[in-house]
Specification:
- The protein is mainly α.
- It folds into two domains: 15-55; 65-161.
- The chain has helices at 2-7, 10-107, 122-159.
- The longest helix is centred in the middle third of the chain and has 98 residues, at 10-107.
- The protein is rod-shaped.
Length: 161
């Protein structure tokens, strides 16, 4: 009968009561600690979201400014390209005028040439060839100059920022 008398002992009931009280207090402390951790986590998440939104807005603003700069560079490049095309057309017309003058000189009567020959002199042939080659070189130089200027503007306004 020993186990039944153990249940009647006040010390057993005191130990059980103390164990229940400790369990309740620890459960309450655990629950409150979890709530404070949840509140702290929520505050951290909100601060991170706010910082992320601010960073997105800053990146969007920077992207828009880079897009505007890129559009400006492209427009400037197209304008420069059109100016170069007009200058090239002017050089082409100058070349045609020079070639027409050379043809007129060739078509002149034979007494205008000191040697008495009707065909073009070697100097005139060299001059005609050099005019054609000069036009090609000028056109290539203008095209490359426009490309370099456009690329420099792109790098300066878009890539470096």
């Amino acid at each position: 009968m020993m186990p039944l008398t153990l249940l009647l002992n006040w010390r057993v009931w005191a130990a059980v009561g103390l164990a229940l009280a400790m369990a309740a207090s620890h459960w309450f402390a655990y629950h409150q600690g979890g709530l404070s951790a949840t509140v702290a986590l929520d505050a951290y998440i909100i601060s991170q979201k706010t910082a992320h939104i601010a960073a997105l807005e800053e990146a969007r603003t920077k992207e828009q400014s880079l897009q505007l700069a890129n559009t400006k560079v492209q427009n400037d490049y197209q304008t420069l390209k059109q100016k170069s095309a007009r200058a090239s057309a002017g050089a082409q017309s100058e070349r045609l005028l020079l070639l027409a003058a050379l043809d007129a000189a060739r078509a002149a009567p034979t007494d205008t040439f000191p040697s008495g020959r009707v065909d073009a002199s070697p100097a005139e042939r060299v001059l005609a060839e050099s005019v054609g080659r000069y036009e090609e070189v000028a056109r290539d130089a203008d095209r490359l100059s426009d490309q370099v200027t456009g690329l420099q503007g792109y790098v300066r306004n878009v890539c470096v920022k």
